[in-house]
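ingest -> fold -> write
write: protein_1
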Amino acid sequence: MALSKDRIGKNAILLLLSDDSSEHLAMLEQLNWKSCTGKVGSMDEHKVVAAIETAAKKNGIINPDVYRESHALYHAIIEALNGITRGQVQLGSVLRTVGLSFAVLRGNPYENEQEGDWIAVSLYGTIGAPVKGFEHETIGLGINHI
């Protein structure tokens, strides 16, 4: 499926689910968009947030010295986690654990450059009781303006 210059969420999900992410990364670079991918597993939602924030900072997706960039990323992560956890962003406190892959994508999905950059976080993996075999697939997406 082809990437679309006006669909940041779709592109974040395609990057996440791609069997050949290098091909998608090359196409995103042509759009002047920044991206990174990674994995995280935990019973603590704050560790999921921290892993995604750390990857975004290390890969130059956001400038950690500019508060609005960190703030936008945080809200995109929380929105994606809401999808993963079905609206209750709780893991270990209710005996749930996740094993997730993530993609973070930053770019301007509008024709008008003055619209500025947006950020999307996509999550895919498993969620369930902390017992092997007691989990199911899950996916979440969060998008926020910077």
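write: protein_2
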Amino acid sequence: MSRPVIAVVGAGPGVSGSVARRFAREGYDVALLGVDEAQLTELAGQVEALGVDVGHAVTDVTDVEAATAAIQRFGDHTGRIDVLHFNPSAFREKDPLELPVAELLEDVALGVGALLTAVQAARPYLSAGGRVTVTGSMAADKPWHRAASLGVQKAGVRNLVRSLDATLAPDGIRAVSVTVRGTLDKQGPFTPDRVADAIWAAAHQDEADWQAEVPYSG
């Protein structure tokens, strides 16, 4: 039997990179989707050094056709996707009076809409026991007014995860967002590696007591 596979959407050097390495250490092969080729190449090397197979694709995840094609290529190659992790969001320092509607919608297309694209593309490769995980944020509940679109994205993606979980649950597939209630740092409880541990734990909840949102408070 082939190893389990995690596809990481919005892969880079932060939480998403820690998630990729965390699952690789548990024996998952890894597919990486992101926009920065240098970062993807470096992360792919780190993951491969852990003894698993890794593939990566440079893709704008807001490009529905390109993102769908990239995920389908991964799925066709591996024959399965066991975990789909979604990480991207846009940080734009503008308050609600400065933020044009077009920019708000652009940010929501990345931080929320791209999750729809990823899940719809991955669905044929997900089977019972499959999981969709999302990096959430306390900005969903306590937005900083100077980055108004971020709070909208995080509230929206959390809401979408609940709908995805209800839709997928009859097939034994579950979705969960991990709400990080703190600021990422290089030390302490909110390092990317510690958050990745929380995402691993959320993905491996007992299904009988499944929660579609799991807070991580360090």
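write: annotation protein_2
Residues 5-216 form a domain with the Rossmann fold fold (CATH 3.40.50.720).
The chain has one domain: 5-216.
pipeline exit 0
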